[in-house]
Specification:
170 residues; alpha/beta; Rossmann fold; two-stranded antiparallel sheet; 5 helices; 10 strands; 29% strand
Length: 170
Amino acid sequence: MAELERDQASQAVRIITTGGTIDKIYFDARSQFEVGDPVIDHVLEEALVHLPWSVEALMQKDSLELSDADRQRIREAVLAAPERRILITHGTDTMARTAEAIGDTEGRTVVLTGSLSPARFRSSDAVFNVGAAFAATQCLPAGTWLFMNGRVFPAGDVRKNPETNRFESL
C-alpha cells in the first residue's frame, strides 16, 4: 500500500489556472461572458480522476488581456511548483505565446490546454481537452506542450489558426 501511495504522489499534478474561455460564465444582467472561478476541480471529479492534483488559481483573465508580466508570473509559478507534472488552463488566443514564454521547465512536464467554448456549456471541448492534457502530463517527456483539437504540440511549433479555429503546427 505504501508503494502505491508513493507512486501516486510522484504522479501528482499541479494545475495552474489562468482564465480563458474554459472558465467563462454568462452574466444575464450584462449580456456578456466573463471569466469566472476555475471549473477544473469539477471536471476532474466528474471524470473520476484518482491521481492527486492541486489547483492554483493564478489569475482570471481572457488570454488577450495577458501581458508579458503575466506570462512571467505563469513561468514563475511553474518553476515554484513542487510537482514535476503541471497542467495549465489558458485562453486559446495566446496559449501558444505563453507556452513559448515558459521556456526551460527544469525537468518538469508542462501541458497547456483550454477550450473553444466554456466548460459550463453542455457541448464543449473542455472536458476532452482537460482529460487528455491531464493524461499527457503523465506520458510526455519534460518540456512545454500544448494540447488542443486532439493533438499534442511542442511549444514553439504551434499556432492557433483563427480562420479555422484550430491549432496547427508551424
